Predict the structure.
Amino acid sequence: MNQEKLQKAREYEAPYIYMQNNKPRPKFHLTPTIGWMNDPNGFSYYKGEYHLFYQYHPYTTEWGPMHWGHVKTTDFLSWEHLPIALAPDKLYDKDGCFSGSAVEMPDGRHMLVYTGVHNQLSEDGQTVGIQTQCIAFGDGVNYKKFTSNPVIDSSTLPEGHDKIDFRDPKVWIEQDGTYKLVVANKTSDGGAVLLYHSPDVICWNFETILASSHNKYTQMWECPDFFSLDGKQIILVSVQGMNNSGLKFPEGNGTIYIIGNYDTKTGIFSREQILPIDYGIDFYAPQTVDTPDGRRIMIGWMQNWGTLNYRTKDQDWFGQMSIPRELSIQNGRLIQTPVRELNQYRNNKVLYRNVLISGERKLSGIKGRTIDLTVNIHKTYDYKYDCFQIEFAKDALHSTSLSYYSNSNTLKLDRTNSKNTPDAASICSLKTYPNGDMLSLRLIIDKYSVEVFVNNGESVMSMVICTAQNAESITFNSDGNTLIDVEKYDIKS
Ligand code: FRU
């Protein structure tokens, strides 16, 4: 096999890069120019710009043999599309270039580390996707796969580990110039994150099991990340088939973070906290980058493998990324806020203070589908209500709602009425942390999605919404009396 597949895919995509702005698509969330997109890959700072790659099947709006799409940005909101970086064109990755990561090498090359998949027939006649870790080097546009790929195969796995599910390497360079990566795998008691190290990116050795499910956090883990943040170490991982236990974790496919301390001498990661990264329906496979100005920024696939049917039929693209989020740790929890660069895209400020909501009410100037909207609910005993609700993306027949139930301190985001949602999950909930005398809800709405940042990012809910774009009304409703402040900005191009 040669580079024909890459050339073909690049030529196929090229005209759509120029046409993309004429199509209905989110204004400031990344979407593919054409075709299918899933996980963010290779989120990295390279020669003064941020590069992002993604799982990509340009030819249809369904998942297919994975390529790596490629974009770059300087502000995390305006993305420049670059030619496709990888195509499944080698024997060891002929069935897909699965998820992975990237770093800038000391010699100036951009290195991609990814999972190559090739199908084989097992002894009992089943097709098995053999997964190995591979590398490619490039200059920020063109990438060449390493001639001795794969660099890690399942023979390096410890005894008793699953030899098939072994994917999604996340690489970084240590201070001493050596390389490390984490990769997802399975042990007999469920999903696991393994740590490997290498002096030279070519020869890799298994180091330790950094974290595992212990049969509690599902059998299947994917897309790990591992980094230090605010004096702690943190593991991010995507989990499949979670059972909800008292709203602690969203049901089904989701993401978790594990905060703890990693002892480099013993190789032991001691856990302190395990919680969902996002309580919404649509957030998966996040990946982070550290920036020269000291921030750790995360982006995720704003979609759920379980709800692929909930989509707009007339679009020739499928899949979008979340808004990139700045991470920090406060009071032992992960805090996420939309990248500060978003502020430069805000205009048309509308501000209300101390508005009493009693029954349903509209506020002049508060509407739209590409907006940054903050609603602060005053928590004072003078005003009593059980349910306060914001409805948005609303017309006579449709709406999506965010409801706050004061007695149980619960938030519910519900898209049941957003359009026909055949068999897709439509509701997600979380318990807010009792916190001060305000509940702050920041809604980032961008045509086909909403991301709700609660109390300045102590919890987040993300959800795709497919309602037609002329549904842009917003109403507020209280079953008693609720006092709120509202601040709204439009997001300009
Ligand atoms: C997660 C995932 C990864 C895999 C990729 C394939 O969404 O299943 O584990 O590398 O998607 O597209």
Summary: The radius of gyration is 23 Å. The CA atoms of residues 93 and 406 lie 52 Å apart.
